[in-house]
Design goal:
The two termini are about 20 Å apart. The protein has about 260 residues and is α+β, with helices and mostly antiparallel strands. Helices cover about 30% and strands about 25% of the residues. It has two domains: about 5-55 and about 160-260; about 60-155, no CATH class. The protein contains seven helices and twelve strands. The longest helix has 15 residues, at about 5-20. β10 (about 230-240) and β11 (about 240-250) form a beta hairpin. α3 packs antiparallel against α4. It is elongated and about 75 Å long.
């Protein structure tokens, strides 16, 4: 769920692009209420709901990594320093020095300094592969430094972004259709009389695939939208600027970039 500051920022972007004045509807005291109405100069109103495209499992894993302060771990017996990469399925409570030793000591004994799963699993000691899989660890690299120290990275979205020449924006489109398809969003944006409605989607920067799309070309295809939603906005922040795409039924895709 986006924060209220995210919602206010979304409303400011739409106001800047459309000229409508955002009036907050959802004050947090009741469920099922849309976030804003956009009021235009002629007095007509268009509903606006703000949501977020995120990866809940990844965010939960990042929080667990930070809560347990797992970045630096001393592992007795190691002759090198290791950088180990976790994932969204890493059970951080069970990542102990003893289990890291069971994974890394056989690598050192075999003179292996690079470990990537599933890439070179067949050439690695079996016990190391089994331990890494059980801990959700996806890579490890040995390098100079303080021997016996393991740097455990926080998890990230490790999916590979593939820019599609024939279907640009494919991951952003998938995010649009998933969130536009949610019954709650449709209910909040249902209006009588054929007025436009707006679904604004913040792309969490940790959600790498659609985030990377927004830094590339506009889609060439229209999203499949329910009747309740006529305008979709996708936005993310890159450094101190907002990149925003808009799809409108009557006009297709357009983009906006700037600050609020």
């Amino acid at each position: 769920m986006p924060s209220q500051s995210d919602e206010d920022q979304a409303a400011a972007v739409i106001a800047k692009v459309t000229g409508g004045k955002p009036v907050r509807r959802d004050d947090g005291t009741a469920s099922g209420v849309r976030d804003f109405d956009l009021i235009f100069g002629d007095g007509h109103a268009e509903p606006l709901e703000v949501t977020q495209a995120t990866l809940p499992e990844l965010n939960k894993a990042i929080a667990a990594h930070e809560t347990r302060r797992m970045q630096l771990i001393q592992v007795p017996g190691l002759s090198q320093q290791w950088h180990v990469f976790s994932s969204s399925v890493t059970p951080f409570k069970t990542v102990t020095p003893a289990r890291l030793a069971r994974m890394l000591l056989p690598l050192e004994s075999s003179a292996v300094d690079t470990f990537i799963l599933p890439g070179n699993a067949r050439s690695l000691p079996k016990v190391s592969v089994q331990e890494a899989q059980a801990l959700g660890l996806i890579a490890a690299f040995a390098h100079g430094g303080q021997h016996g120290r393991v740097v455990l990275s926080r998890p990230s979205d490790d999916r590979e972004w593939i820019g599609a020449f024939e279907n640009p924006g494919q991951y952003a489109l998938a995010a649009v259709e998933e969130l536009a398809g949610k019954a709650d969003n449709q209910r909040k944006l249902a209006v009588r009389g054929g007025a436009d409605s707006h679904l604004f989607i913040w792309i969490d920067e940790r959600n790498f695939l659609p985030w990377a799309d927004l830094r590339s070309k506009l889609p060439s295809k229209a999203p499949t939208l329910p009747a309740e939603i006529t305008n979709v906005w996708l936005a993310t922040t890159v450094y101190d600027r907002i990149i925003c795409w808009r799809y409108a039924d009557a006009r297709g895709w357009s983009s906006w970039e700037g600050t609020i």
